[in-house]
């Protein structure tokens, strides 16, 4: 009896350790597309950061406002929201459940304004890539990884925003590598990690190639960019989107628009019909409208009154109509099932990145891979001048996981065949086994 009880406790503990939160199926990457189970997944969403960057706060913690906004999300017919800033020191169960119940996934930026790369110059860029920064990024991963409706993480947003600061690219790629390794080592599922780029005409194609070249551990799982080139009145060809589809036709990873919605003229949202048509779905996987609330920049689709009530504007109404009129393609949308890494772009006046070498992960941050990141710092403090930066270059492949990622058929050196237990659960399981033995 005691032995049975002990085994029951052990089984329950293991089940709890691996328990995912939410009813939505986790989204995975297959070829150049996202899939929810066996069904092609298209991002149909909005950027959601009430208050804007100037008043960065965590919208998942204001449950009253979130409940109000979720009703509007359902009216729009979207399946994804992008959030740029969250407080990784807080619990998000209620907010994430609210989204999950509404059928909505979260695309989450892993950085906050004070825990990010500082691109001001080469010195500040190097200084800001330190273990204090990575501890915050990893803590954000820990805080959200167990939610099924966590769609993906952005490792950065518009860090390269002009043709003369492409020297930031190796650091962005290093952060992507570090996040992928941390997820593979410490979480129970693989979560896509990629970059949200500014559509800088001189180097956007080089960015796409760069983040998909090199060894597998450092390649992004997707490439996203903020595209405002469709300004009504426009069309698939007038906007130049046909040329972009052609440019990325052989790209082997999912591509989607992490922001879109030009406000030069009235937004009639003709790009919705184009984006989810088979003219584009062989290459693109949808996109995110910028943005939900009206801020000083004038992009929003709802206005928040002083009393907290929401008033949808005409942009909202036209967008809801466009989404309702546009179904996803049937079948797989023409996605490419396989592909290969891109060729790394050559150094030029518009791409000031020499070779493929990346900075090594800061020495003190390597401990997080084994011990975990611990509690997140939240929105207090900052990392730009804290901690110890990287002190050298990384060897190619050094960011590979030290255990087999979930779903992988490969076993890392030294790993027991067929064993795939996240490091953070080993102590829990061992303690439970000991407790079971004592009961016996």
TrEMBL record:
Its main location: membrane. The keyword Phosphoprotein does not apply. Its EC number is 2.4.1.-. Keywords: Glycoprotein, GPI-anchor, Lipoprotein, Membrane, Signal, Transferase. GO terms for cellular component: plasma membrane; side of membrane. Coiled coil: none annotated. One of its GO terms (biological process) is fungal-type cell wall organization. One of its GO terms (molecular function) is 1,3-beta-glucanosyltransferase activity. Residues 396-412 have a biased composition (Low complexity). Splits internally a 1,3-beta-glucan molecule and transfers the newly generated reducing end (the donor) to the non-reducing end of another 1,3-beta-glucan molecule (the acceptor) forming a 1,3-beta linkage, resulting in the elongation of 1,3-beta-glucan chains in the cell wall. Belongs to the glycosyl hydrolase 72 family. This is 1,3-beta-glucanosyltransferase.
């Amino acid at each position: 009896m005691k032995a049975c009880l002990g085994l029951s406790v052990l089984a329950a503990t293991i089940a709890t350790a691996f328990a995912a939160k939410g009813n939505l199926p986790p989204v995975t990457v297959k070829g150049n597309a996202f899939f929810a189970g066996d069904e092609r997944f298209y991002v149909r969403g909005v950027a959601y950061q009430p208050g804007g960057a100037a008043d960065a706060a965590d919208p998942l913690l204001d449950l009253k406002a979130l409940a109000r906004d979720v009703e509007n999300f359902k009216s729009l017919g979207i399946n994804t929201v992008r959030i740029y800033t969250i407080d990784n020191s807080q619990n998000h169960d209620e907010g994430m459940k609210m989204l999950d119940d509404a059928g909505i996934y979260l695309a989450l930026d892993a950085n906050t304004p004070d825990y990010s790369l500082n691109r001001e110059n080469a010195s500040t860029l190097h200084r800001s890539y330190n273990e204090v920064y990575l501890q915050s990024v990893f803590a954000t991963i820990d805080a959200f990884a167990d939610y099924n409706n966590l769609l993906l993480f952005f490792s950065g947003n518009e860090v390269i925003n002009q043709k003369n600061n492409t020297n930031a690219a190796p650091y962005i790629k290093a952060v992507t590598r570090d996040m992928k390794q941390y997820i593979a080592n410490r979480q129970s599922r693989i979560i896509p990690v990629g970059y949200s780029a500014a559509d800088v005409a001189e180097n956007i194609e080089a960015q796409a190639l760069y983040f998909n070249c090199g060894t597998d551990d450092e390649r992004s799982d997707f490439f996203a960019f903020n595209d405002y080139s469709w300004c009504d009145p426009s069309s698939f060809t007038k906007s130049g989107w046909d040329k972009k589809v052609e440019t990325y036709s052989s790209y082997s990873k999912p591509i989607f628009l992490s922001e879109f919605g030009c406000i030069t003229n009235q937004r009639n949202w003709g790009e919705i019909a184009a984006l989810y048509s088979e003219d584009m779905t062989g290459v693109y996987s949808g996109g995110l409208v910028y943005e939900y609330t009206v801020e000083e920049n004038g992009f929003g689709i709802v206005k928040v009154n002083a009393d907290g009530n929401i008033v949808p504007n005409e942009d909202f109404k036209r967008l809801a109509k466009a989404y309702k009129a546009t179904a996803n393609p049937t079948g797989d949308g023409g996605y490419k099932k396989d592909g290969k890494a891109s060729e790394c772009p050559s150094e030029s006046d518009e791409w000031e990145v020499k070779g493929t070498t990346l900075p090594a992960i800061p020495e003190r941050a390597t401990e997080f891979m084994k011990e975990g990141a611990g509690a997140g710092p939240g929105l207090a403090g900052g990392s730009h001048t804290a901690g110890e930066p990287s002190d050298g270059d990384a060897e190619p492949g050094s960011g590979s996981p030290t255990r087999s990622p979930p779903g992988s058929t490969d076993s890392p050196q030294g790993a027991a065949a067929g064993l795939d237990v996240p490091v953070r659960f080993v102590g829990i399981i061992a303690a439970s086994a000991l407790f079971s033995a004592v009961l016996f």
